[in-house]
């Protein structure tokens, strides 16, 4: 059975991006980039909004307020282009123009459940906050990983990650620090029906 990883890159205050900031908030360092290069191959899962954004980057578009991609950002987009990707959308039309993409129009939760049961490997989300929330609520997520960058984007932050998420208990299974400031934390998640009334005595 495949393993499902929800993988977020965030500011310290839980934003996925910030207006005018480069990718990784411009704070990625050699340790973090080396760790990224060592990661095993995955099949990426995303929704329509993330597809439109990332496929645009692959086609040469850059975010508003940014003149051009840095080499590290270009390498990240190239890696995504080469990887297999599954896109869940009722609005996109085939054929998808970004290489190595499969479009799924049906229920995303059931499709991911079938993907997990179809064989070994790693399925990993990229962006797609509502998709991640749905997969988490369905109990399909095996690992929940967050790379927290040492910046607060209270004035410019976009895409608050955890709004409307359920309460989740997190069992830490890994933590690391890269380049003296980037924190990686990885958990096994367990969605709670309700918060505990009081701490165990």
Topology:
Blueprint: E1 3-11, E2 15-18, H1 30-37, E3 43-47, H2 48-58, H3 71-82, E4 85-88, E5 101-104, H4 108-117, E6 122-125, H5 129-137, E7 143-149, E8 157-160, E9 168-178, E10 182-191
Helix pairs in contact: 2-3
Care to describe what's here?
This protein is an alpha/beta fold. The chain has a single domain, classed as Dihydrofolate Reductase, subunit A. The strands form 2 sheets. The chain has an 8-stranded mixed β-sheet with strand order 5-4-3-6-1-7-10-9.
CATH architecture: 3-Layer(aba) Sandwich
- Largest sheet geometry: 8 strands, mixed
Helicity level, as a percent range? 10-25%
Poorly predicted spans? none
CATH class: Alpha Beta
Whole-angstrom Rg:
17 Å
Shape: globular
Q: What is the average of the pLDDT values?
A: 91
